[in-house]
Amino acid sequence: MKKKATIITVVVVVVLAVGGWLFYRNQQTIPEQFANKNLTTYDPHQTDSVMENHLGMLVNIALGKNSGQIDASSPVFKTDASGTYKYIKPNTAAAKAIYKVYGHNSYDPKDYNNKINSEKLGRVRVTMEGKNSWTLHSKKLTLKFHKTSDGHWATSDGTIWFVSKRDRKLK
Length: 171
Hints:
The chain is of the alpha+beta class. The chain has helices at 2-26, 93-101, and strands at 37-41, 58-63, 67-73, 117-123, 125-128, 133-137, 142-147, 153-155, 160-165.
């Protein structure tokens, strides 16, 4: 009788553990307005003198229902007469957070020479802070966004991010 009770207890614990894991894995941590969407910056090579991409490269954040991936490409190699990258703000919190995902502390275009530099963000959580502000959290990246007057989203450094529908699922 004792052996039977032990077996039943083990089976119940295993079923509860698997059920809890499945619930956690499938739980949606990103609101519907951002789930299965892309957040994309302007291409830094195509912006004008009022540059809205201060990161120095094209950045795309693909969001699932509870996970994310960040891709960076097309780094800007042009410098002004003083040797600095004009319009790039590499010392802002948003820029440093994105560079850190790729293992760098500052902007150097040679670090992003690959066609696409892609990093998985793992489990992502979005915290809404009213209608006009939200924060994206993951183990690798934390970015705070606010709504601009034209309805798009921007990070604290002034980089504009566009929300668009994603055409493929995250792996």
